[in-house]
Amino acid sequence: MPSLYLELTDYRRRMAEIYSRVRKSQHSPQSHWHQFRADQDDLFKTHPQTALTPDQVANFTSLRYYPYNPALRFVVPVEKIVDKEVIRFDLRDDGVTRMQPIGYIPFEVNGQVVSLTLFWITGYGGGIFLPFKDLTNATETYAGGRYLLDTIKGADLGREGDQLVIDFNFAYNPSCAYNDRWSCPLPPPDNSLPVPIQAGELRFE
């Protein structure tokens, strides 16, 4: 049993290192996106704590993504949010998870101004969490939505000055998108965008 937790720790460490390389890269966002994808594929294919089942690993070549779209990378301020209630998720394996809204991020997609709520996962340590849904769900991307930031798992694109880097080309599927071994917190209604986000990871097949 101790080896299981050491493997999980190693998986999170390696995931955090992948994102650290993205933040530190001196190359263009598109260049380090290609390296990010290669690193992710290697982790999914080779790590004992991959989200995939053994049968899925045996047939796995790579995760599928939209082509890189520079128009869906943003550097945005986090605007103050007032009197938003904590959201509770009852997860099968982890019990109740609580997410505190801490701000919102406005941006523009295809001429339409939209926004997403940014959350803090409460509990020991805590972390920033940014899940979202959009009009590609169930047709091109996972029906339950995708994640963009989850600093508990090391998924952190950093910031520029006092603004947050939000790059939808790095949007990824929650583990429950791959098989029913996993139970995941999915985006709340406030984070359902009325536009398609054609960037990031596609539906797993």
List the helices and strands and how they pair.
Blueprint: H1 2-24, H2 29-46, H3 54-58, E1 73-76, E2 87-91, E3 95-109, E4 112-121, E5 127-132, E6 146-150, E7 159-160, E8 163-167
Antiparallel strand pairs: 1-8, 2-3, 3-4, 4-5, 5-6, 7-8
Helix pairs in contact: 1-2
Briefly, what is this?
The chain is α+β, with helices and mostly antiparallel strands and 205 residues long. The protein has helices at 2-24, 29-46, 54-58; strands spanning 73-76, 87-91, 95-109, 112-121, 127-132, 146-150, 159-160, 163-167.
Describe what this molecule looks like in 3D.
By secondary structure, this protein is of the alpha+beta class. It contains three helices and eight strands; from the N terminus they run H-H-H-E-E-E-E-E-E-E-E. The mean pLDDT is 92.
Q: What is the terminal-to-terminal distance? A: 31 Å
Q: Number of helical runs?
A: 3
Tell me, rounded to a whole number, the average pLDDT.
Answer: 92
Radius of gyration: 17 Å
What's the SSE pattern? HHHEEEEEEEE
Shape: globular
Beta content comes to: 25-35%
Instruction: Indicate the structural class.
Output: alpha+beta
Q: Looking across the biggest beta sheet, what order are the strands in?
A: 2-3-4-5-6
The beta-strand count equals 8
For the biggest sheet, the summary is:
5 strands, antiparallel
Helix content: 10-25%
Low-confidence stretches: none
